């Protein structure tokens, strides 16, 4: 009985025999084309699964190796397309993430520059108090000691700075979202 007839009859031993005979040839054929161990192993597995699944379509008058390698070739092409598609999707996703991060950085830097311009319009001592408090995170007590002023004066400068910045900054943020 020929191997194709045995396969069509559902003989798993025939499939195992075919696998043992051709697995290395299939692997090296795919590896020669792709230079990928992963792809080669995947195509070997998928090709024999397809051979078994579609065994009823095998032609008894056509050599089994020819039919097997037709399956291998189409499986390899499908696998390469799948890998390329996944690569493109990953790159697109990565590129989109990078673009979003860049937009956030640009927006942050733009907002920061606008804030610095507003701070620059305040009196020098108020600027220094504001920077020490809001940018460098010093406490009112620490700022008072550094600048030799009272904590109440520090509090007053922060309050006046915020009152000065808030209306302009709110307007800037509203305009940037339009």
Give a written overview of the molecule:
The structure is a single chain. By secondary structure, this protein is mostly helical. It has two domains: 3-91, Orthogonal Bundle (Rna Polymerase Sigma Factor, Chain: A), CATH 1.10.1740; 121-177, Arc Repressor Mutant, subunit A, CATH 1.10.10. Helix content is 84%, strand content 0%. It has helices at 3-8, 12-34, 37-53, 64-120, 124-135, 140-147, 151-177. Helix 2 runs antiparallel to helix 3 (37-53) and helix 2 packs across helix 4 (64-120). The longest helix has 57 residues, at 64-120. The chain is rod-shaped. The relative contact order is 0.07.
Encode the helix/strand succession as letters: HHHHHHH
Terminal CA distance reads: 78 Å
Mean pLDDT level: 84
Helix content: over 70%
Strand content is: under 5%
CATH architecture tag of the largest domain: Orthogonal Bundle
- Count every beta strand, where a strand is a DSSP E run of 2 or more residues: 0
Structural class: mainly alpha
- Biggest sheet: strands, sense, closure? none
Overall outline: rod-shaped
Q: Can you count the helices?
A: 7
What is the fold-level CATH name, i.e. the topology of the largest domain?
Answer: Rna Polymerase Sigma Factor, Chain: A
At the first level of CATH, what is the class of the largest domain?
Answer: Mainly Alpha
Tell me the domain tally.
2
Q: Runs with pLDDT <50, length 5+?
A: none
Global Rg: 36 Å
Family: Belongs to the sigma-70 factor family. ECF subfamily.
Keywords: Sigma factor, Transcription, Transcription regulation
Domain RNA polymerase sigma factor 70 region 4 type: 113-164
Organism: Haoranjiania flava
């Amino acid at each position: 009985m020929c191997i194709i007839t045995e396969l069509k009859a559902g003989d798993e031993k025939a499939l195992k025999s075919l696998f043992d005979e051709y697995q290395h040839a299939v692997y090296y054929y795919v590896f020669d084309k792709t230079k990928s161990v992963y792809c080669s192993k995947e195509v070997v597995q998928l090709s024999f699964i397809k051979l078994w699944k579609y065994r009823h379509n095998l032609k008894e008058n056509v050599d089994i190796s020819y039919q097997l390698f037709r399956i291998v070739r189409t499986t390899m092409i499908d696998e390469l397309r799948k890998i390329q598609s996944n690569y493109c999707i990953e790159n697109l996703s990565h590129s989109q993430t990078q673009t979003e991060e860049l937009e956030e950085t640009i927006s942050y830097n733009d907002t920061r520059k606008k804030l610095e311009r507003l701070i620059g319009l305040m009196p020098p001592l108020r600027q220094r108090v504001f920077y020490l408090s809001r940018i460098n995170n010093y406490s009112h007590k620490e700022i008072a000691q550094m600048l030799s002023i009272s904590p109440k004066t520090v509090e007053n400068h922060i309050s006046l700075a915020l009152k000065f910045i808030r209306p302009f900054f709110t307007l800037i943020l509203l305009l940037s979202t339009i």
